[in-house]
Every structure is written in C-alpha cells, then in structure tokens.
Specification:
By secondary structure, the chain is mainly beta. Helices cover 12% and strands 49% of the residues. The N and C termini lie far apart (131 Å). It binds 2-acetamido-2-deoxy-beta-D-glucopyranose (NAG) (9 copies).
Length: 445
C-alpha cells in the first residue's frame, strides 16, 4: 500500500499521513462525453477521483440518472480511474451520466460520505448508411426557377439533422420539414445564363459527427423561342409575302404549312397574298434536344391581307322576289379588309333598302337598287332588283266592270272561273319566284 520507498523521506511521510487520515476526495470528475454518440456503438465512461482517504473505504459509482451502472473500488494513486462501457441506445439520448464516490467510515463510527461529479448529458443519434433521396428536374432552362427536394428517412433525432443543399458552390436556402424520423428539404433553384452547362446539385444531411451526401447532375440550357417574321404583317392583296422562321443555335425549326417540313435551323415560305390568306396563322416550331429530352418552343404570327371591297352574288343576291306582309331580313354583305361600309339606294329616289332588319315587306320597297360597298381601299357596286308580290284585291271589280262593258251575259261562274284562274296564275308565279329566291336568299321561317 505504500510504494514510496524510492521517494524522499518527506514525501514518504506525507503519503503515509494521507493514507491514514480520513479525507474527502478533492476532485470527482466524469470525463467529457463525445458531443454525439452513434447508437449501437460502445461508449466508455471514465471517472477520475483525486484524493480521498482511506482508499480502502472509498468506492466509485457510475450512474445514468439515478441508475447504477458500475460500482468499483477506487484504485490508483494519486488519481483513481474507474471505467465502464455502455452500448449507446436511442433511449439514452438526453440522459445524464455522473460519477459518485462513497467514503464509508461507518465502521470507524464516522458515517457514509458521498461526493458527485458534475453530470454530463449524452446525445445519441442514428444516421442511416444510405444516401439522401434527391429529386431534381434533370434539365432546367436558363432564367427559370424550379424546386428541388432532398429527403432522408430513419433519422434519430430527426429534428437535430442539418441539410446542406447547393448547386455547385452556390448554396441554396431550403425549407426543411421534420417528421418523427425523417426530413424533407425543398429549395428553389434559379439558374442564370452563367450557369449554362452540366452542374452538380448536392444534398448533404449531417447528424452528430456524420454526414451522408448525394449528387445529381442538372443540365442547364438556354432555348429562346424561334424568330418568326413576316415580311409584311398587313399586306395588300397580290403582294408577295415571305414568312421566315429562324432557330437559335443548336435548335431546328419546322414551319407548319411549309411543303418541305423537314427540320433545319431555318425555314422560309413565300406566298402571293390572297383574300383567303387574311387572318391565316403561321406556326414555327423549334425543337432542341437537351440531355435526351426533345423540347419544343412555338411562335405564331398572323397575316392580314388588305383586299376588297367586294360585293358578289353569293353574299348579296341580285334579284329578290318577296311577298308583301311576310317578315323577312334582307341580307347583303360586302367582304373586305378593312370591313367596308355598305348601303343600297334605290335608283331615282335614293331610298335606302333596309338591310339586315327583320320587318314585314311592304310593296313600296320594290325597285332597282345600287348597293355600294366602300372602304379606304375603294368602292364596289352591285345592282339589286327587288320585286314585291302583293294581293290584287281590286281584281274582281276590274273583271266585273269589263264584263259589263262588253255586254256579255256573264254568269257568276265565268267570273268565278276567271278569278280562280287569275289566282292560280299568281300562286304559280309566287311559287316559282319563291323557289328562285330560296336558292339565293336566306329566308327565316
Ligand atoms: C465532498 O462531500 C462533502 C460532504 O459529503 C463536502 O463537504 C465536500 O466539500 C465535498 N467535496 C468536494 C470536492 O466536492
Ligand atoms: C464520430 O464520433 C465517434 C465517437 O466520438 C468517433 O468514434 C468517430 O470516429 C467520429 N466519426 C467521425 C466521422 O468523425
Ligand atoms: C461493446 O462492448 C462489449 C463488451 O463490453 C462487447 O461485447 C461488444 O461487442 C461491444 N459492441 C460493439 C458494438 O463494439
Ligand atoms: C475500511 O477499511 C478498513 C481497513 O482500513 C477495513 O477493515 C474495513 O473493512 C473497511 N470498511 C469497508 C466498509 O470497506
Ligand atoms: C441533465 O442535466 C441537465 C443539466 O446539466 C438538465 O437540464 C437535464 O434536465 C438533465 N436531464 C435529465 C434527463 O435529468
Ligand atoms: C399575285 O396574284 C395576282 C392574282 O392572282 C396576280 O395578278 C399577281 O401578278 C401575282 N403576283 C405575283 C408577284 O405573282
Ligand atoms: C431574333 O430576333 C432578335 C431581335 O428581334 C435578334 O436579336 C436575334 O438575333 C434573332 N435571332 C435569330 C436566331 O435570328
Ligand atoms: C409546338 O408545336 C409542336 C409541333 O407542332 C407540338 O408538338 C408542341 O406541342 C407545341 N408546343 C406548344 C407549347 O405549343
Ligand atoms: C329576276 O327574277 C325574275 C323571276 O324570278 C326574272 O323574271 C327576272 O328576269 C330576274 N331579273 C334579273 C335581273 O335577274
């Protein structure tokens, strides 16, 4: 018990006194624990006790909370070290470890004296040996924003995990959602023209002193829409218009309507503008291949053709036979761009024909009219004859008077015959006229 023979007599004397006189330990300390302890790995607890006598009556306890882990005599001078190994578990996270000495001087009639170390809190963690799951768009267009998500399951304690998301060396600021044992971090990536090319997107999840990372490539491309140009967007009829579609570097275009639709970096068609081309749309579709994806961008342009004014039989019949008293809408339309103004005036008195209004036909609209369509491009005229058929209510009287003058002993039968015949003729004419009109005229029921 007294290995002091080699020391000076003074030291040997002090050691002897120290061994004999009872005294509390001067210092009881639990060695610092690792900042983070992986679950499933052994943790060694070390407790150092300085002083305390007599050593034969001094023991050391290692405690987790109030739970006794190990109880050993204090061995070693002048500092006694006591160790214990524990397998770290999830449940140990947040628990306190401490070490306590007991100087048992009860046999000497002095009692039991305890001294404790400052407690140390343990933090345990689980970071699975798998790479985080990184969801990226794969390709991204310059000037756009997309979100990327990185997630990892099986974390403990998930809320303590840190995420680092970066596009090359440009750090992103993700919004992190924690659940019981996982996390999911979402960040917006915005790419600028200087980022064009293949870039690495990295996600690293750090927990405790460990980290897991994943990398994915993102191809950043620029793809401006093609340029679709018309030599004239408002062309007078009969002018030659060229339509040209040009792609930007790397892309090819297809101009819809081009007989030679094979894709080239540019395409062109020329046409002699006709009234039919007014409002015609041209579509230029550019295609670009980026990392195995074929992308399209389209441009549309409309051609406006200035023509007319025009008045033709199809849209304005030249001969209208109408029946008095029947409601009808008189239709006459002039075509042209710009849209012409139209009026039809009767020859002679200049009365206006009520076009486009639904109203009962009166006999006084009969006559020959000149329809005139006017636009800043000129004037077109068209003659329209309007016949109104009406009841000849005085016919019977005329026939009766004629018969009287001629002195013929006319019977009611003859008059009736004549009247009926007259009526049949009129009916027949009307029928014919209506048939003729129906072919050209849109008559509402
Ligand atoms: C040890 O405990 C005793 C009482 O049990 C106390 O008087 C003494 O100061 C303690 N020593 C240390 C170093 O804490
Ligand atoms: C993490 O900490 C443990 C315990 O302190 C240690 O054994 C291990 O080497 C450390 N790992 C890393 C990657 O630093
Ligand atoms: C932990 O230590 C015990 C003995 O103290 C040993 O049996 C066990 O294999 C160790 N476990 C690990 C994971 O090192
Ligand atoms: C205390 O030490 C003495 C000898 O120094 C021994 O006889 C006694 O049994 C010890 N008591 C305890 C409780 O260890
Ligand atoms: C561990 O000790 C710290 C102070 O050191 C205390 O705040 C905490 O509540 C203790 N934890 C437990 C589980 O006792
Ligand atoms: C365009 O078509 C019009 C009518 O068909 C014709 O008169 C004209 O000469 C044509 N212009 C050209 C340049 O071919
Ligand atoms: C498309 O038009 C813009 C200006 O309108 C021009 O700067 C650009 O060079 C054109 N691109 C191509 C491929 O012609
Ligand atoms: C562009 O045109 C191409 C070919 O006509 C078509 O497949 C594609 O869906 C169009 N894209 C858009 C955005 O309109
Ligand atoms: C109009 O039609 C009537 C019969 O429906 C016909 O007799 C006449 O000749 C036609 N006039 C013109 C100008 O077409």
């Amino acid at each position: 018990m007294l290995p002091v023979a080699a020391r000076s007599p003074r030291t040997a004397l002090l050691a002897l006194l120290w061994a004999l006189l009872p005294g509390f330990p001067e210092h009881v300390e639990l060695e610092p624990l690792p900042q983070w302890q992986p679950v499933g790995e052994n943790l060694t607890l070390r407790c150092q006790v300085e002083g305390g006598a007599p050593r034969t009556n001094l023991s050391v306890m290692l405690l987790q909370g109030e739970k006794l882990l190990s109880w050993q005599p204090a061995k070693g001078t002048p500092v006694a070290e006591v160790t214990a190994t524990v397998l770290a578990r999830r449940d140990d996270h947040g628990t306190n470890f401490s070490c306590r000495t007991e100087l048992d001087l009860r046999p000497q009639g002095l009692g039991l004296f305890q001294n404790s170390s400052v407690p140390r809190q343990l933090r345990t963690f689980v970071l699975p040996k798998v790479r985080p799951h990184l969801v990226t768009p794969g390709i991204m267009e310059v000037g756009t924003q997309r979100s990327v998500t990185c997630s990892l399951d099986g974390l403990f304690p998930a809320s303590e995990a840190q995420v680092h998301l970066a596009l090359e060396d440009q750090r992103l600021t993700p919004t992190v959602k924690y659940s019981k044992d996982s996390l999911s971090a979402t960040a917006l990536v915005e790419v600028a023209p200087r980022d064009e090319g293949v870039q690495q997107l990295t996600c690293a999840v750090t927990l405790g002193n460990q980290s897991q990372r994943t990398q994915e490539s993102v191809t950043i491309y620029s793809f401006p829409a093609p340029n679709l140009t018309l030599s004239e967007s408002e062309a007078p009829e009969g002018t030659v218009v060229s339509v040209e579609c040009k792609a930007h570097a790397g892309a090819v275009v297809t101009l819809i309507g081009d007989p030679d639709e094979s894709p080239f970096p540019s395409a062109q068609i020329t046409l002699n503008a006709t009234a039919k081309d007014n409002g015609r749309g041209f579509v230029c579709s550019a295609a670009l291949e980026v990392a195995g994806h074929v992308l399209h961008k389209n441009k549309t342009q409309k051609l406006f053709v200035l023509y007319g004014p025009r008045l033709d039989k199809e849209n304005c019949p030249g001969n209208w036979t109408l029946e008095e008293g029947i409601s009808q809408t008189l239709r006459c339309q002039a075509s042209g761009n710009p849209i012409p103004k139209l009026d039809c005036r009767r020859k002679g008195d200049g009365a206006l024909l009520p076009i486009g209004e639904s109203r009962p036909v009166t006999r006084d609209i009969s006559g020959t009219y000149v329809c005139r369509a006017t636009s800043r491009r000129g004037v077109a005229t068209h003659e329209v004859v309007v016949n109104v058929i009406y009841q000849q209510s005085n016919l019977v009287t005329i026939i009766a008077v004629t018969a009287l003058i001629l002195g013929i002993a006319a019977t009611g039968g003859t008059v009736a015959y004549l009247y009926n015949r007259q009526r049949k003729i009129r009916k027949y004419r009307l029928q014919k006229a209506q048939e003729a009109a129906a072919m050209r005229l849109n008559t509402p029921p």
